[in-house]
Amino acid sequence: QSMSRKGNCLDNACAENFFSLLKTELLYLQEFHSVEHFIEELHEYIEWYNNKRIKLKLNGLSPVEFRHKAA
Length: 71
Description:
The protein has helices at about 15-25, 35-50, 65-70. The protein is mainly alpha-helical. The N and C termini lie far apart (about 30 Å).
């Protein structure tokens, strides 16, 4: 499903980037034995992505740390 307004592809860039990373860093790297297993791994990935994943564009901070520092 598109996350953008009609005729504005740039609105969708953040969502497209996240889902691309999700697929390459989680989905393609392992096999899931059940839907519950996938949901558990997905929750762990999102926790890691927001709180532990260091981004150079955010001065070496995780997204949550960057937001706390900026506030």
